[in-house]
């Protein structure tokens, strides 16, 4: 589909550090309707100023708020693959959805999201598949978006992100160490259960219980193998 992009500049942004390459794409849901989301992400008077590079409406229109070469304030306290404070090296997309655990994402919206993400990945080759993440991946316990109904598998099939291939033998080692190898925050900063829930929310949304069962270990083993982060 052809993307419809509307420039709707936000004043909430900052320079990127000259030594920082954009290597992470963070997907969020808004939990608010479109206009409320645009207003908040463009409000320079809020005590905690926030923004995103893009806002994606339910019918597929893309609103561009912050240029990709500038830092938008969407990730907050965050961690992925050994680094924290990910605003400096990421692009953030806010997807209009009132609650991704309860509301499906329209097909037209997801089609537009795939096109937008492909464009971004083409401009930023350092964003490898496992660096396409949800807010819940980089801020476990604190965030749950883009939610249980977000179609990660569909995106991965379209070349956006990674999805575990079936049939892997369950991972038999230290699960927390393996989760950290994939990208998640160390368990010294959060309980292992909360990190497992973040992993399951992304890769096994049918049951998010924080238990390192055989299915979870198999998914983790498959992902480590696919991204070349095995033992």
UniProtKB/TrEMBL annotation:
**Pfam families given in the database record:** Amidase_2 (PF01510)
Q: Where is the N-acetylmuramoyl-L-alanine amidase domain?
A: 10-147
Write the record's keywords in alphabetical order, separated by commas. Cell wall biogenesis/degradation, Hydrolase
Write out the catalysed reaction.
Hydrolyzes the link between N-acetylmuramoyl residues and L-amino acid residues in certain cell-wall glycopeptides
- Output the InterPro entries linked to this UniProt entry: Amidase/PGRP_sf, Amidase_domain, NAMLAA_amidase_2, PGBD-like_sf, PGBDSf
One biological-process term from Gene Ontology?
cell wall organization
- EC number(s) from the headed UniProt entry: 3.5.1.28
Question: Does the keyword field hold NADP?
Answer: no
Q: Cite the GO molecular-function annotations of the record.
A: N-acetylmuramoyl-L-alanine amidase activity
GO cellular component term of the entry, any: outer membrane
Q: Which PANTHER family match?
A: N-ACETYLMURAMOYL-L-ALANINE AMIDASE AMID
Member of which family?
A: Belongs to the N-acetylmuramoyl-L-alanine amidase 2 family.
- Its name, as the record gives it, is N-acetylmuramoyl-L-alanine amidase
